[in-house]
């Protein structure tokens, strides 16, 4: 990983940890398998930190530009899949 996560310096330490956990799980979805419920749980926590849809889109776009991984597609697949474990491979 040769990139940085899009973080906001106004977030608390716990919020930064939670956002890092979210992006870490997004990476894992592309590299191996993730649990559907875990993805939805970390996304719900992210929504508490970033309630604005436009701000969420900016953060997702910044992460995708840096990493090549689409958080939007991972969350969408987690919502739609019937499988408990899934991968973006």
Q: What brief labels describe this structure?
A:
89 residues; mainly alpha; Annexin V, domain 1; two-stranded antiparallel ribbon; UPF0223; BH2638-like_sf; UPF0223 protein BN988_00832
Description of the molecule:
This protein has one domain (13-80): BH2638-like (Annexin V, domain 1, Orthogonal Bundle), CATH 1.10.220.80. It is globular. With 89 residues, it is mainly α. The longest helix has 19 residues, at 13-31. It has helices spanning 13-31, 36-49, 53-67, 71-80; strands at 34-35, 85-86. This is UPF0223 protein BN988_00832. It holds the Pfam family UPF0223. Belongs to the UPF0223 family.
User: Could you say how many structural domains there are in total?
Assistant: 1
- Assign the structural class, choosing from mainly alpha, mainly beta, alpha/beta, alpha+beta, or little secondary structure: mainly alpha
CATH architecture: Orthogonal Bundle
Shape: globular
Strand content: under 5%
SSE string: HEHHHE
**Cα-atom radius of gyration:** 12 Å
Q: Helical percent range?
A: 55-70%
């Amino acid at each position: 990983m040769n990139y940085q996560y899009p973080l906001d310096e106004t977030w608390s330490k716990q919020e930064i940890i939670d956002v890092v956990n979210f992006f870490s799980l997004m990476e894992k979805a592309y590299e191996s398998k993730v649990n559907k419920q875990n993805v939805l749980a970390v996304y719900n926590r992210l929504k508490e930190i970033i309630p604005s849809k436009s701000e969420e889109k900016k953060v997702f776009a910044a992460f995708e530009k840096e990493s090549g991984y689409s958080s939007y597609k991972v969350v969408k697949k987690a919502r739609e899949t019937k499988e408990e474990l899934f991968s973006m491979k």
